[in-house]
Amino acid sequence: MLTFIYSIRHFFERNGFYVSSRLADKIGMRAKIIRLFFIYLSFATLGLGFALYLTLAFWLKIKDLVYSKRTSVFDL
């Protein structure tokens, strides 16, 4: 049972969207504090924090696809 929980945790850490890390870098805070904020927001608002997290994740993914860094003009 414990290995199953660790495998789920490892899966989410490996395939995460890095929303809290990127938001923490942008604001200048620790990622742990941002993660706790989303957890507390989810409990306080009955899932609204999780919906906000997913919205930010998909928005950041689309932003990365549109604004990819190009090394030169010829990469267009």
Give a quick rundown of the structure:
By secondary structure, this protein is an all-alpha fold.
How would you characterize this protein structure?
The structure is a single chain. The chain has 76 residues and is an all-alpha fold. 72% of the residues lie in helices and 0% in strands. It has helices spanning 2-14, 19-27, 31-44, 48-66.
Please tell me what the overall shape is.
Answer: extended
Order of helical and strand elements: HHHH
What percent of the residues sit in helical stretches (DSSP H or I)? over 70%
Rg from Cα? 16 Å
Q: How large is the count of helical segments?
A: 4
Oligomer: single chain
Largest sheet: none
The strand count comes to 0
% residues in beta strands: under 5%
Secondary structure layout plus pairing:
Blueprint: H1 2-14, H2 19-27, H3 31-44, H4 48-66
Attribute tags:
single chain; mainly alpha; 4 helices; extended
